[in-house]
Amino acid sequence: MHSGALELALVLLLAAVIAVPVFKKLGLGAVLGYLVAGVVLGPDGMGFVQDADRILGAAEIGVVMLLFVIGLELSPTRLKVMRRSVFGAGIAQVALSALVLGSLLLLDHFQWKAALIVGIALALSSTAVGLQLLSEHKGINSDYGRLGFAILLFQDLIAIPLLAAIPLLGGAKNETLQWGDVAVALGALAVVILCGRPVLRRLFNIIARTRSPEVFTAMALLVVLGTAWFMQEAGLSPSLGAFLAGVLLSDSEFRHELESQIEPFKGLLLGLFFIAVGMEIDLDRVVAEPALIAIGVAVLLVVKFGLLFGIGKVARLSTRHALLLGSVLWLGGEFAFVVFNEAQRANLLGDANHDRLVAIVGLSMAITPLLMIALLRVLGSEDAPKQDKRPADKVDNGGTEPKVMIAGMGRFGQVVARVLTAQKIPFIALESNPDTVSDLRRFGNKLYYGDPTRPEMLRAAGGEYVRVYVVTLDDPDANMRATRLIRRMYPDAVVLVRARNRQHAWRLMDMSAEPFREVFGTSLELSERVLTALGIPTDTARAHVERFREHDEKLLRDQYLVYDDEAAVIQTSRDARADLMHLFEADAESDGKASDASRAD
User: Is the pLDDT of residue 272 over 50?
Assistant: First the structure.
C-alpha cells in the first residue's frame, strides 16, 4: 500500500470525496475536511502515508496555480493601486508580528538569531488557507478581503530574503548569499516582467489556431509550471513567478480561457496540499506536551489577531471587518515549515523546538476554520448593504462588471457591439476564432478568446452577474448549445439569439430565448427600397413594410404553437398569406379614398 502510487492516489481521492462533503454538510468548510483527512491518513493516524514531505512538495503546485489564477484577476493597473496596502499594511503586519513573537521567544531562552528567523516565519500566514476561507465565506471582494490579500502578497515577497538570510545567520560556510545570486534573481524578474507579456501572448495565439483544446490546456499548464520553475531556479519563490505570469496575462484575450483551464487542476491540487499539511501535524508531540503546544498556539493566534485588528482599524475598516481580517490571517503559514527545516539544517533550531513549532503552526491552520465559523456566529449577519453579485472567488475590480455578454463576434455580433459601445454600455465578448479576436483587438475592442458553449468558460468570464446574453454564433447548432447551457446555468437572464431561419427560431423559442432572424431586418429594408424605386411614396412604403413585419412576427408565434405538425404549419401560412393580402387591399382602398378627397379639396 505504501509503495504503490495507484493505491496511494486512490486513498487520497477517497479521503477527499468522503471528508469534504461531510464537513461542508456540518458547516465546517472544505479546508478543515482536507486537514482532518490528512491527519487520519498520516503517519500519526492510520499510517497509510509515511512520507508526507514527498506529497507536500508535489501538492505545492496547487498553491502555485492558486497564485496564477489570482494574478489573472489583477491587471497591472489594479496592482499599482494596491501598492499602499501591500507595502503599508504588509510591512506593518510582518514587522510588528515578528517583533512581538521574536521577543517572546527570547524570553523562552531562544538565541537571538533563532528568535529572529522563527519570529518572522510565524508572522507569515497561510496563503492557501486564507484565500480558501475568504472564498468560502464570500469575503474576497470585501474591504477586509482586499486588505488581507495585500498582506498575503507582501508575505510572499518577504519570504525570499528570509530564506536567503538563514545561511548567513547560521554561519554556514560557502552558503552565504553572493552578489551574483542577487543579480540572477533580479535578472529573472526583469526577464519575466519585460518579456513575459509579448512572448506569452504570441505563444497562445499560435496554440489557439490549432483549435485543439487539449493542446491549449497543456500550454496553460506549461506556462504556469514553467514560470514557477524559472523563478525557483533563480532563487525566488515559484508562487511569485506564477503570480507574475497571471498578472502579465490578465489583460490578454486569453484570460478567461486560461482561468477555465487551470481552475480544475488548482482545486484538486489545493485539496491535496491541505491533506499533506494535515499529515505534517506531529500528533506524538502534541500528546507528549499538550500544555506547551496549546500555549504556543494560543500565543500565536492572540498576538497576530490583536495586531491584525489594530492594522485593520488604522486602515479604517469597520470593527466587524477588522475582526474578520484577524480571524483569516492569525494562523501560521505553510512557508513556516520550509523555514523551520532550513533553520534546523543551519543549526539554528534543535530537533525538539523544530517539532514543537511544526505542531503549533499545523494546529493553528487546522483550528482556524472552526474559530472563524465561531466568530461569524458571534458577530451574526451583516446589517451593512448587501454585497453585490460577484463570484466569491473573484478579485474586486471596482464594480464595473459588464451586464451584457456577446457570444460570437462575427459580422452579426460586431454590429451589436458597436451599438453598445456608442451608448457607452460595457459588455464582455467571447469569440472562438483566434484570428477574429486578434483582428478586432487591434481596433480597441474588448473581447476574449474562448468557447461560450463550455460552462467553465461562462463562469470564468463572469456569467454570474450578466443580465443579458446576446448569442450570435455563426453555427446554428453552436447557438443552440450555448443557449441551452445559458438557460440551465442562468435561468433568470435575458437571452437574445441569432436565428438562421424560422425552424431554428422555433427551437430557440422552446428554450424561452428571443430569436432574431439573421436576414429578416435587412430583407425588409431592401423591400422598402424596392417599393420606393417603383414610385410609392416613402412614408407609404415604410408603413407597408412595418405592417408586414408585425404580420410576420405574429405568424412566427402562431406557427410556433404547431411547428411539429407540418400540415398545420402549411395551412397557417396559407391563411396568413390571405389575411395579409386583404390587409394590403384595405390599405390601398383607404389610400385611394384619401387621395380622392385630397384632390377634391
Answer: yes
